[in-house]
Write a sequence for this structure.
């Protein structure tokens, strides 16, 4: 598995940032390679389940994502796990800071080697690392308006 960790400080209250990220249909607005989120279901636990479409190196991948109550601590932590084209665990962590929120995004994922080939792995990892920075920059831009 590959692990990437990125952080950013956003001039917005924790509640605003957390609430935005709790709604899966908001993610394509900030995540360049995330094409679509559909079939969102609210779970009794307070989490969600959905289907997603993602493009990695031009290849369309589809799967499901689920966040559960044990991994959803309001205004502190939100974890979702994906299955399908890419197996991953995405953890969003939120810390109040003077005048805003420190947001940390931690993603652990498996590059779908049979789909992309071993030689492409290093390139994909680098592209995804850059995408993590873009996701946080886009989130910051959305939250600071």
């Amino acid at each position: 598995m590959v692990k990437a960790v990125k952080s950013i400080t956003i001039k917005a209250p924790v509640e605003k940032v957390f609430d935005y990220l709790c709604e899966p249909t908001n993610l394509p607005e900030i995540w360049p390679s995330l094409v679509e989120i559909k079939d969102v279901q609210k779970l009794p636990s307070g989490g969600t389940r959905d289907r997603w479409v993602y493009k990695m190196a031009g290849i369309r991948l589809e799967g499901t994502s689920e966040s559960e109550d044990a991994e959803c601590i309001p205004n502190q932590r939100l974890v979702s796990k994906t299955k399908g084209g890419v197996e991953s665990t995405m953890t969003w962590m939120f810390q109040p800071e003077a005048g805003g929120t420190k947001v940390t995004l931690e993603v652990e994922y498996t590059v779908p080697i049979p789909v992309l080939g071993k030689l492409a792995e290093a390139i994909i990892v680098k592209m995804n690392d850059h995408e993590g920075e873009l996701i946080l920059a886009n989130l910051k831009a959305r939250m600071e308006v």
Notes: The chain has one domain: 2-143. The two ends are 36 Å apart (CA to CA). The mean pLDDT is 89.
